[in-house]
Amino acid sequence: xxxxxxxxETVSDRELVARCRAGDEAAFAELVTRHQQRALNVAYQLLRxxxxxxxxxxxxxxxIDRHMAEFRGDCEFTTWLHQIVVNLARNKLRWWQRxxxxxxxxxxxxxxxxxxxxxxxxxxxAGQTExxxxxxxxxxxxxxxxxxxxxxxxxxxLSYEEIAVALRCSVGTxxxxxARAREELRRRMQ
Amino acid sequence: MRCRDCQRELSALxxxxxxxxRRAAVETHVAECAGCRQxxxxxxxxxxxxxxxxxxxxxxxxxxxxxxxxxxGERVTWVERLFQPVWWKVPLEAAAALVVLGLAAVWVNQSxxxxxxxxxxxxKADRWGPAMAESPRLREEVEGTAKLAAAAPVESSARAMRTxxxxxxxxxQLVADTIVVEGADPATVQRQAAQVALALDGRVLPSARxxxxxxxxxxxxxxxxxxxxxxxxxxxxxxxxSLLSRDTRTNGPAGAMVAMTRETETAxxxxxxxxxxxxxxxxxxxxR
Lengths: 190, 288
Prior knowledge:
Chain A is mainly α. In chain A, 69% of the residues lie in helices and 1% in strands. Chain A folds into 2 domains: 10-106, Rna Polymerase Sigma Factor, Chain: A (Orthogonal Bundle), CATH 1.10.1740.10; 125-190, Winged helix-like DNA-binding domain superfamily/Winged helix DNA-binding domain (Arc Repressor Mutant, subunit A), CATH 1.10.10. Chain A contains 10 helices and 1 strand; from the N terminus they run ααααααβαααα. Chain B is of the alpha+beta class. In chain B, strand 3 and strand 4 form a beta hairpin. The longest helix of chain B has 42 residues, at 86-127.
C-alpha cells in the first residue's frame, strides 16, 4: 500500500503508525520529518552536545522503526518518542560518565552559530538573551532528573501526566520534581 | 494558608495543574502575600526562560541519515552485541569462561571422588560381604572410610589416610599397616627394608615423603613375611601404628583399613591376578 506525500501530511500520527506497520516507508519518513525537531531538541537540552543530540535523535527513530509492532497506542506517539529519546540520552550520559567526561559543551561553543537557531523569545524576555543564555548554562548543570522534567514541561510543553508516562513515574513525582527543579534554577539565577 | 504550603504549589499553579479548590486557595494567598507574589514572578521568569532556550534546526539530511542507519546495516547483530567492543568484552568474557570452567572442574572432581571411593570401597565390601554382613560395625567403618577419604582432612594423620585412598583409586594398591621402627638410623632401616622387599618380589617406592618415612610395595601374600623378616633384620619388635588419630580411630575408619588389610593378608583373597599390590609404610622414629 503506497501513500503519496500529500496524503500522509494530513493524517494523524496514529494513522501513520498503522501505515508504518503495514510497511509504508513514506509514512515512516513523514513521522520522522514531523517529529525530528522535537526529538533533536529534547536530546540537545538533555545532553547539551550537538553531535550526541543528533545521534540520539536519529537512533530514537531507528528504535521506533524496529519496535513499531510493540507500540500499543495507549499513549500518544510523541509521548513514546519522548520516552525513547530520554532513555537514549540517559544511556549517552552514562556512557560519558563511565569515561569520566562531561558531554556538555558551553553555549558559547564556536560551532554554535552554525546549528543553533534562536527561538522566539516571549515579549517579557525580549532583550534578555543574556538571562536566557545563563539560564541554559545553569539548566545544563542541574541534576539529570530535574533537567528532564523541565525540558519536557517548558520546552515540549507536555502535561504532568504525559511527562509521567514518558519518564515512567507517578504524576505526584513529576509535580514535586518540577517544583524543586524550578526552585533550584530560581535560586541559582539570583 | 501558610507561605510554605503556598510556595510548594506555585509551580503547579503556573502550569495549570492544580485542582480548582486548591488553585483558589493559592491564588487568594498570593494576592495577599507580597513575598509569595514575588516568588511566583521569579518562577514564571525561570519557566519562560527555559521555554525560550534556543532550538536546534535539524539538518536537511536528517531523514536520509535515519534511513541510512535503518538500511545501511547498522543493525546490531547478537554477535556484535556479544563481542563488541572487542578490546574489553573478549578478554572479560574469556576470563569469565575460564573461571566458570575452573569452578566446573572443581565441582566435577569433588562430586566424582566420593563416588569413586564409594565404588572402590563397595567392591571390597562386596568381596567381604559375608564378614560385613556379620559385622555391621565393619560395614560402618568401611563406609566411614570412604566418606573420610573424600573429605580432604587437614591433620597429618588424616593426610596419610587421604594418600591411602588415592592409592586405592589410582593404582589398585592396598595400604597395609604403618610399621614404626624406634631408635634406628633411617638410612639403615631403608636399606634393610629394600633388601628384604627385593627378596619378596617387592621394592621401596621412590616417592618417600621424608627420610624417616618411606613406603614398600609388596605382593599382598608377602606382607606377613616382609614384616617378620624386617623385624628379624632390624632386631626390633614390630609395632603397628594407626593411620588416624585416637578420636577417629574409636569410630573406626582407620581401623577399617587395617581390618581390610588383615583380612586380605589372612584370607589371601587378593591374588596377583587382581593386579593389586600392598603398600607398607615404614616410619623411623627416635627412641623414647
